[in-house]
Amino acid sequence: MKHSIVLLPGDGIGPEIVAQARGVLEAVASRFGHDFSFSSHRIGGIAIDETGDPLPAETVDACRSASAILLGAVGGPRWDDPSAKTRPEAGLLRIRKELGLFANLRPIKLFDELADASPLRADIVQGTDILFFRELTGGVYFGESGSSGEGEDETAFQSMTYSRREIKRIVRMAATAARERSNRLTSVDKANVLEPSRLWRRVAAEVMTEEFPDVQYDVVLVDAMAMHLINRPADFDVVVTGNLFGDILTDEASMLPGSLGMLPSASLGESGPGLYEPIHGSAPDIAGKGIANPLATILAAAMMLRHSLSLHAEADAIETAVAGVLADGLRTADLARGDSEAISCEAMGAAVVKKIAG
Ligand code: NAI
Ligand code: MG
């Protein structure tokens, strides 16, 4: 079967890391006998430079008809002029909206070989492997807002809203993913205080009882979850939560592995192509030097195979290859410690390709 993959390299280190991820996907295609076709399109700063628009219509069209999308990163100091009409990040926000991507997936997996990079003690973080599902298009970030009054009475508000439909679809998606992992799902809310959280808790329980009775399910309050992530992160498997709580908890959790260059993410909608990317930015400080860590983007490509193309063995093969190169002691500069010598972005990509080829 033919899969058409749209590449959006973007700015800074984006083109370097996406090139390595593409090489890895080509290695998967040849080992497993798949037909992946690639086309590259503009997004972010480079799209502003060349077309005046951070998300040209041509890019949107290509994305809509793709099987899946792999993005590098957008932005950089060159486009930071506050008087500019448009910013690179606007392209990213718009593509998520255009494609109806309501679920943000963030796996937080600690590779044993990198346990010493974590700010937490190795005996606490060892074994951490969490998959977050953050609701991305609802909640307080999109609620009604306004302000009124003057002086000491100046007041502002922003309301948190969730509908039954919005809650159901993300809980279903997370529970389905839990079935493919350790069959455990934790829903995080603030139902002791917030009305939309009470609805969230009720609807989530309904979905779990009626559709996923086989999945072990529990609920945790968001403030308690913030503590558990530091105290016993290895106890969680799949976690589902709303937009605001997910924003904060996933950033907190992203610090657990201790290296930004290792963390992928995905944004998915009900149907249509998913968008896969590293969680880090365009790293303008190291762009063009050939020293960026491509593993987050390579792991994002693995997520793409698993969640958009249902190629599970192929996704596993990439993740095993990444663990393998780390076990061999290969490190890009961001991961290198002490006397260990760092390898280039390209060399890291090539090492993963070699493992996959076997
Ligand atoms: P950043 O993630 O780009 O960089 C933070 C630090 O981590 C830098 O020292 C960088 O060199 C390092 N780093 C990041 N990724 C790395 C990798 N793969 N290998 C080795 N080192 C890596 O965040 P920063 O500096 O706050 O933002 C830079 C630009 O990226 C800004 O324009 C920002 O708006 C944009 N950005 C874009 C995102 C996206 O496209 N999704 C997400 C976050 C930031
Ligand atoms: Mg955030």
UniProtKB/TrEMBL annotation:
It catalyses: (2R,3S)-3-isopropylmalate + NAD(+) = 4-methyl-2-oxopentanoate + CO2 + NADH. Binds 1 Mg(2+) or Mn(2+) ion per subunit. Residues 4-352 form the Isopropylmalate dehydrogenase-like domain. Gene3D superfamilies: Isopropylmalate Dehydrogenase. Its EC number is 1.1.1.85. Pathway: Amino-acid biosynthesis; L-leucine biosynthesis; L-leucine from 3-methyl-2-oxobutanoate: step 3/4. Its main location: cytoplasm. It is an enzyme of class 1 (oxidoreductase). GO terms for cellular component: cytosol. One of its GO terms (molecular function) is magnesium ion binding. Mg(2+) binds at D223, D247, D251. GO terms for biological process: L-leucine biosynthetic process. Substrate binds at R96, R106, R134, D223. HAMAP family: LeuB_type1. Homodimer. Belongs to the isocitrate and isopropylmalate dehydrogenases family. LeuB type 1 subfamily. Catalyzes the oxidation of 3-carboxy-2-hydroxy-4-methylpentanoate (3-isopropylmalate) to 3-carboxy-4-methyl-2-oxopentanoate. The product decarboxylates to 4-methyl-2 oxopentanoate. This is 3-isopropylmalate dehydrogenase.
